[in-house]
Design goal:
The complex is a heterotrimer of chains A (411), B (273) and C (316). Mean pLDDT of chain A is 89; it is low at 1-26. The termini of chain A are far apart. Chain A contains 18 helices and 13 strands. Chain A is α/β, with parallel strands linked by helices. In chain A, the strands form four sheets. In chain A, strands 6, 7, 8, 9, 10, 12 and 13 form a seven-stranded mixed sheet that branches. A two-stranded parallel sheet of chain A has the order 1-2. With 273 residues, chain B is mainly α. Chain B has two domains: 21-51, no CATH class; 63-263, MetI-like fold (Orthogonal Bundle), CATH 1.10.3720. Chain B contains 16 helices and no strands. In chain B, helix 5 (62-95) packs parallel to helix 9, helix 5 crosses helix 10 and helix 10 (147-158) packs antiparallel against helix 13. Chain C has one domain (84-315): Orthogonal Bundle (MetI-like fold). By secondary structure, chain C is mainly alpha-helical. Chain C is 71% helix and 0% strand. The interface between B and C is large, with 107 and 113 residues.
Chain lengths: 411, 273, 316
């Protein structure tokens, strides 16, 4: 009696499984294009629908993996096993491996790339060739609470680091926590400073380091020392090493801190939580010999699987061309709120973000991990950990830079 | 008299401690009734108004029901098979403790020790060869690795059973399989339920294998549906937690239903303090 | 139920002890070994074959993206053994494994005994203790991250401030405190489930033992140490083995709670396997790490199994 019940349960489950297993493929004559999306399903679906409406003979079958680690893992497993989708995203983490392994189609010269700025093309390219179509960029800088600034007597944001430090001290004196920055990733401040430094060099900073002409110790130590001051001088508590971007955002939304590091992705949550809060983005203030600058990068680029057959590749190019077209970009901007960079579409960023949006279109962005030429993630993991140790007083700024040199030499 | 006072003290102490343990549960639940703004403003306080929008949005999506069905099928098949494979092996090991079997037993334990991440890519490639990738049976096969865990727990429990059961069965002329099925399985029900509950939680909640294995939207499991809300820079936490709660409701119901069986085990009456 | 009718041998005289003295015929032997077959098939296909592949890759420069690889000998192993972050990861992984095993055991046994008694609200209490086993550890880690926020507005810190006037503590920002925090959350997550496991075993202790003990005038304490604890040793062997292996393989919790920080304070071996294999395209290196790790965990786990079995033999 019991036996038959369990057996029946197993049998019915097995049966149901086999039924579900063979229920794919509509077979309606449309060409199927597989796509692994980096963008969440809710945002991506309208974009795909718009494309399918414009191309009724194509059926985009999208699957989704949340960025970043899970996406990279899923794509890696599929690429290796020969089950990669026709279209996927090339990102900082997998750029080198995908290009080296010959898994992505060379897109150089495709008409849809003409609208993409050089900055975005170079990010996902190598040796003058382009492997990914990146249609937007992100930037992060400082976010100021204007009301709290006014309480300390400031009606504009500082341009230089010295002015910024002075403002922090004034805020502190007025009983306001001046500044917190999340350092669970590469600090926005450092990225911006190194970026400002590099933008005035020719050849750029990373070329010197990676060709062996210069070292992290030489290039990074001054910025690291300057950054460490905010902790050693007590302007920011070393406790920030335990914070992530969402926590820092919540502190800001609740009016408990005057300045944070942030990007456009915090805007909606802050508006919802504190509709009356007056805030404004601005670049990271410049060091004495540098200009105000911002951290940021080109968003991951759409890439085509080189193992897909010719027909699929042609269809995939249609998809990319649509994504870069004004109609495609319009839906994309509406859904993702990204600042798009294609030349024939004018994005309308949030007014509070305006000061950084201009920099995005100029390509005045820097993110070490994306600019580094090899061992990107190895160096990034090391840098974040060493910076956290520096903030806790366990290693000197120079020690951080030396550790990076050692890591580069050994990998 | 003293017994009832003692019971009262125990009740109060245990309830207080359990409530402390459950603070994260409260945190998750309370935020499902808030908008993102409310949560950012005051994550721990009770919601200002009873906001049901998150639940409405989650439950109005037809795909969630499809993913429930998929998860249910995969979990049921995987857990029943795991328990069966584990119990069979445990029985073989316990009734005949030869040196060979002891060596096999020790080697099987290696199955726990290997971190899942290091076998994922090789396994996936094998399944591609068998055309089992992006299918629910393929997922069930991946979960069979949990059999080793079941084996280990079940054999420990079986060792505490009295041998007379098997002897009695043999005298009645029952074969090994009949003894296993009719006599031993009913007796190890408490551990089967305990292990079954635990494996169910794992399979139901697992994220890693479905993300890698499943690409067709119709074959998604509930957890994949949950993680659709995650994006690169920010996450709508109240929404994310709501989907998580909805995904877990069947698990909670399941646990509440089964916990009686964990407790009403072998002996009528149980242990009285 | 038929069970209560059976004459009860003592636990020590269970299935194992008797069966050694009763060898059966060849046919029975074959039938018996056939019961093992499914488990062996599962083991070979899901563990042995992939591990062998990992071992092969550990000797190559495999990136995880294309099977076109070069043989590099033991250089991956050399890289691992000279990397300071790996040593930090090893240290914390061991600390987490041993720490959670010891503390969870110390909590779960008395808890199981209490949860087995009758009191008002027992089912609710059991459910609440078990609850941490239900959601995935990744979600719980994110929730705890908020609760343990080092800011004054963090849940724990604001409570401490209100109740005791103690200033904000840097739960996840200070190396030592972060280690303690991760371990405490790990204990929180496992204690209830292991109590349930012990409870299942408590069910198999015959009530008569306690009755006899009470007639002999044994106190509750004496009953616990004289009957309950010795008869729970089979459960202890299993529970500690599970805790140790799960503890050494921990990934989700530190990853979501601290992401290995601050610095490398809470970095784990599994995190470094994932980071090297997935984010860094160094699959050969990750495989070498996995091979070394498997060997190390096996050594530790079997050592611990041997130790608890020795204790079991002494007790029973």
């Amino acid at each position: 009696m019991k036996r038959s019940r369990v057996a029946a349960a197993v049998a019915s489950a097995a049966l149901a499984l086999s039924i579900t297993a063979c229920g794919s493929d509509a077979g309606d004559g449309r060409t199927k294009l597989t796509y692994l999306s980096w963008t969440g399903e809710e945002q991506m679906t309208p974009i795909i629908e718009a494309f399918e409406e414009a191309n009724p003979d194509i059926d985009v079958e999208a699957s989704y993996a949340p960025p970043v680690a899970e996406y990279i893992q899923t794509l890696q497993t599929r690429v290796l096993s020969g089950t990669a989708p026709d279209v996927f995203l090339i990102a900082a983490e997998n750029k080198t491996s995908l290009i080296d392994g010959g898994h992505v189609v060379d897109l150089t010269g495709e008409p849809f790339l003409e609208k993409i700025p050089d900055f975005n093309k170079e990010t996902y390219g190598r040796d003058g060739k382009v492997y990914g179509m990146s249609i937007s960029s992100w930037a992060a800088g400082y976010l100021y609470n204007k009301d709290l600034l006014a309480e300390a007597g400031y009606d504009s944001v500082p341009e230089t680091w010295d002015e910024f430090l002075q403002m922090c001290r004034d805020l502190e004196a007025a009983g306001i926590t001046p500044f917190i920055e999340s350092v669970d990733q590469m600090p926005t401040t450092l990225s911006a400073w190194i970026g400002a430094q590099s933008s005035e060099m020719d050849p750029p900073l990373d070329e010197l380091i990676f060709s062996g002409e210069s070292t992290f110790e030489e290039q990074w130590t001054p910025a690291l020392e300057e950054y460490n001051r905010i902790f050693t001088e007590g302007i920011v508590s070393p406790d920030v090493v335990g914070l992530d971007g969402d926590m820092v955002r919540d502190e800001f939304a609740n009016g408990r801190v005057a300045v944070i590091n942030a990007g456009p992705w915090v805007i909606n949550a802050i508006r919802e939580a504190a509709p009356d809060l007056e805030f404004e983005f601005a670049p990271v203030p410049g060091l004495p010999d540098g200009k105000p600058f911002q951290a940021g990068a080109a968003t991951p680029g759409y890439a085509i699987n080189s193992k897909a057959d010719e027909e699929k590749q042609a269809v995939a190019k249609k998809f990319l061309a649509f994504l870069a077209s004004p109609e495609g970009v319009e839906v994309f901007e509406e859904q993702t709120n990204d600042v798009t960079v294609t030349s024939d579409f004018e994005p309308t960023p949030d007014p509070a973000f305006e000061p950084l949006a201009a920099a995005i279109r100029e390509g005045e962005l820097y993110l070490p991990m994306i600019s580094w030429q090899r061992s990107e993630d190895v160096l990034n993991v090391e840098a974040v950990a060493q910076i956290q140790r520096m903030i806790q007083g366990q290693v000197s700024p120079q020690g951080v830079a030396q550790a990076l040199d050692a890591k580069l030499a050994s990998s | 008299m003293t017994t009832s006072v003692r019971r009262l003290v125990l009740s109060v102490a245990m309830i207080a401690l359990a409530c402390f343990i459950a603070i994260p549960l409260y945190y998750i639940l309370v935020n499902t009734f808030k908008t993102q703004g409310d949560m950012v403003a005051a994550p721990l306080s009770p919601p200002t108004q009873l906001f049901l929008g998150n639940y409405q949005e989650v439950l109005s999506d037809p795909r969630i029901y499809r993913s429930f069905l998929n998860t249910f099928l995969v979990t049921a098949a995987a857990v029943v098979l795991q328990l069966l494979v584990g119990a069979l092996a445990a029985f073989a090991m316990v009734v005949r403790t030869t040196t060979l079997n002891r060596v096999i037993g020790a080697v099987l334990l290696l199955g726990f020790i290997v971190p899942g991440q290091s076998t994922l890519i090789p396994l996936y490639r094998t399944l591609v060869g068998f055309q089992l990738v992006d299918t629910l049976p393929g997922l069930v096969i991946m979960y069979l690795g949990g059999s080793i865990f079941c084996y280990f727990l079940i054999q420990g429990y079986m060792r505490t059973l009295p041998y007379e059961i098997i002897e009695a069965g043999r005298l009645d002329g029952a074969g090994s399989f009949q003894i296993f099925w009719r006599l031993v399985l009913p007796l190890i029900k408490p551990i089967l339920v305990t292990v079954g509950v635990f494996q169910t939680m794992w399979v139901w909640n697992d994220f890693l294998l479905p993300t890698v294995m499943i690409s067709t939207p119709e074959k998604r499991t509930v957890v994949l549906q949950v993680y659709n809300a995650v994006s690169e820079f920010t996450t709508d936490w109240p929404m994310f937690m709501t989907v998580s709660v909805v995904a877990l409701v069947p698990m909670v119901v399941f646990f509440v239903l089964t916990q009686r069986h964990i407790v009403n085990g072998l002996l009528a009456g149980g242990v009285k303090g | 139920m038929t069970t209560t009718m059976l004459p009860r041998a003592t636990v020590r005289e269970g299935l194992v002890a008797r069966s050694r003295r009763r060898p059966g015929g060849w046919k029975q032997l074959a039938v018996n070994q056939a019961f093992l077959l499914p488990a062996i098939v599962v083991f070979v296909f899901l563990f042995v074959v992939p591990l062998a592949q990992s071992f092969y890759w550990s000797l190559t420069d495999f990136t995880g993206y294309s099977s076109d690889v070069t043989f590099v000998g033991l250089s991956n192993y050399r890289t691992i053994l000279t990397d300071p972050s790996m040593l930090a990861a090893l240290g914390f992984t061991l600390l987490f494994g041993v720490g959670t095993t010891v503390v969870v055991t110390l909590i779960a046994i008395p808890l199981a005994v209490q949860l087995n008694k009758r009191f008002f609200g027992r089912n609710l209490v059991r459910s609440l203790w078990f609850f941490p086993a239900i959601p995935s550890m990744a979600i719980l880690g994110l929730v705890w991250r908020y609760i343990l926020s080092p800011l004054e507005s963090g849940v724990v810190n604001s409570t401490l401030q209100d109740l005791f006037g103690v200033g904000p503590l840097a739960w996840l920002s200070d190396g030592t405190l972060a280690r303690v925090s991760v371990i405490v959350v790990g204990i929180w997550a496992a204690a209830g489930w292991h109590a349930v496991l012990y409870m299942a075993y408590l069910q198999s202790i015959p009530n008569e033992y306690y009755e006899v003990a009470r007639i002999d005038g044994a106190s509750a304490r004496q009953q616990f140490f004289g009957i309950t604890l010795p008869l729970l040793t089979p459960a202890l062997v299993i529970s500690t083995f599970l805790l140790m292996t799960a503890g050494l393989k921990v990934f989700d919790l530190p990853y979501t709670l601290t992401n290995g920080g601050p610095g490398f304070s809470t970095y784990t071996i599994t995190q470094s396997i994932v980071v090297a294999g997935v984010s860094q395209g160094r699959y050969g290196l990750a495989s070498a790490l996995a091979v070394l790790f498997t060997i190390a965990v096996a050594a530790l786990a079997f050592g611990q199994l041997w130790l608890t079995k020795t204790i079991e033999r002494r007790f029973v």
